[in-house]
Design a protein that fits this description.
alpha+beta; six-stranded mixed β-sheet; 6 strands; globular
Length: about 170
């Protein structure tokens, strides 16, 4: 994206469209209602600033000039947790599901975390997000906890499932 100024300039609007569309269709991305353009722009500004400081990584997947997915991790801010980061978002356009975009983004983010010296990468997912949970397990993440019925979407309740990947071990294969 940095090598293509047009993509960089259009990224906040494209990210907003992607995230708003996914949330509108019920994706488990942490919002009940689609986020505003200002909310997404502020989020991207925060993640970009953290990335410049070495405390985050942001990845985007494109087909031509169409944003198909994005993801990022953030290093924990507490001094006792600094060696660790949380994979905060991984979002893939509905038409790209099942085509390896999420896997490519997640693998790139894991590689970025390893290169940044992150020891443990954590994430949480909504318990009904079976495709995401399968993807994370296939990448070596292991479940370390679950809060039953913790996520409230209207009257519906879902488990919050916690996963971790210990990057202190060398990668398989």
């Amino acid at each position: 994206m940095a090598a293509t100024p047009g993509l960089a300039a259009a990224f906040p609007a494209a990210a907003h469209r992607l995230l708003a569309d996914l949330v509108r269709d019920g994706a488990a991305l942490g919002w009940v209602e689609p986020p505003s353009a200002a909310d997404v722009a502020a989020l991207l500004d925060d993640v970009s600033a953290a990335a410049r400081a070495g405390d985050a990584a942001l990845r985007a997947a494109y087909l031509g000039d169409r944003l198909l997915g994005l993801g990022y991790w953030l290093r924990y801010a507490r001094p006792t947790h600094r060696p660790h980061a949380d994979l905060e978002k991984l979002a893939v356009a509905a038409e790209a599901h099942g085509r390896g975009v999420g896997r490519a983004l997640a693998a790139a983010l894991v590689a970025d975390a390893r290169a940044a010296g992150i020891e443990v990468l954590t994430l949480d997912a909504r318990g009904d997000n079976d495709a995401a949970l399968r993807l994370y397990r296939s990448l070596g993440f292991t479940e370390y906890g679950r809060l039953p019925g913790f996520v409230a979407v209207g009257e519906r309740r879902y488990d919050k499932v916690f996963h971790m990947l210990d990057l202190r071990r060398p990668p398989d294969g």
